[in-house]
Amino acid sequence: MQTLVRGGRVVDPAGGFEGPADVLVTDGRIAAVGPGLEAPPGAEIVEADGLVVGPGFVDLHSHVHSIAGQRLQAMDGVTTALDLEAGVMPLERAYAEAGAAGRPLHYGFSASWGGARAQVLAGIAPDARIESSLAVLGNPRWQRSSSPRELAEWLSLLEGEIAAGALGIGILMGYAPATDPAEFVAVARLAAKAGVPTYTHVRELIEVDPDTPVDGSAEIADVAAETGAAMHHCHVNSTSGHHIERVLATLDKSRRAGSRVTVEAYPYGAGSTAVGAAFISPERLRLKGLGPASVVLLESGERIADEARLRQVRADDPGAPCILEFLDERSERDRGLLREALAFPDSIVASDAMPVYWPDGRHESTEWPLPPGGTTHPRTAGTFAKTLRLMVRETGSWTWLEAFRRCSYLPARILDDVAPAARAKGHLAVGADADLVVLDPAVITDTATFSDPTRPSLGVRHLFVGGEPVVADGVLRAGALPGAPLRGEPR
């Protein structure tokens, strides 16, 4: 199968090239890049005049484990969607279920720190489903510190998942914020020994909780320096809030000293998680300068009225998905903080995409367009298009070359050591994977809102996953399920 994408403005962040060129795809790989390429006999020709052509976006932080959610991400320019912050357990089941059902996008998972701890500390057997993981997050039984025996036991579980092909270790430290910091060091030492990255939702900042065992962002910087592990700081925008400038300065100092710390951000002032999460307790909300009204239940749309209602919901259904508003996007100051997180040198764009839920309890649909009534966080559908709108179209903060570096090239490079197959992603060199996005630079924008979160982004004209079109002429191909697993091969 051959396709010639002709006449576009080609952007290759690896080689620093941006200019008019054609891209020839043969059997799922980039066969040639350059001006005036001849179309081989029988090749499909995609006209890209006036459009930008680059490597598809690599999302390191997607909790979407469904065809429905991945289709929204496809319309946002994503070609690889990985669940690395939370991870899954058991890993083999997650890969097997995704492979059996098929996926529009490439997929992969990290080993789940939370799942391993829940199994050992609380006797909760994980089943690899994101819905079950959300329910576990609010369970306090796994959020305590471990005995030496328990620590050894769950570290062994993680080691087994790494051997099975995990793309590193996902650490939800923010959901167990009072645990012994020595445990975090032990996990980082395991990761460094295995040659895999960690992906951490950090614990609370010292400004938010003076009683925290250690400042969350300082902890990741210090542990990366102590152990030599490659450590990724997830959604720095949401865990830092109004303290983003101090946090970024801490991370910058650590990186300048040689620590292997990477950072990601998304362009929204509200996050999404389970209502039972530790940081959504009334006490912790007060420490953040927030209140119950900052919490909105995702499935019902209820905005929590007071602390009594919040306590009731957390007790009755701790796994209920919710929205937490941590910055006010109506405020120019808060919008500036979001842009600052994105603009931080080498900050990676990652969505933290959430599952789509329907009122009848479904978490999956093979219909397209999606059935009405679906709820999720708008970042599921709009993260990358919104970022491009903000950082390229509206403010000119990034060139297209820089945008593709942040959305495609840098995230793929985090995976190079653990998954050598990732070296073929995020760039357009000959032999690279034919994961391509072709977008309209004058149109690209998000349309999803908190009241209508499943509206697809606009401006992605074509999307190729492994050389197969998933989006063609702006229309999603519902029968296209070319996604393939990306698995770890630790040293």
Automatic annotation (TrEMBL):
Keyword annotations of the record: Hydrolase
Chain ranges of the Amidohydrolase domain: 392-471
GO MF terms, alphabetically ordered: hydrolase activity, acting on carbon-nitrogen (but not peptide) bonds, in linear amides
Record InterPro entries: Amidohydro_3, D-aminoacylase_insert_dom_sf, Metal-dep_hydrolase_composite, Metal_Hydrolase, Metallo-dep_Hydrolases_sf
Bilayer-spanning residue ranges: none
Hydrolase is among the record's keywords: yes
UniProt xrefs under NCBIfam families: PRK09061.1
Entry protein name: Cytosine/adenosine deaminase-related metal-dependent hydrolase
Species in which this protein is naturally found: Amycolatopsis jiangsuensis
Lineage: Bacteria, Bacillati, Actinomycetota, Actinomycetes, Pseudonocardiales
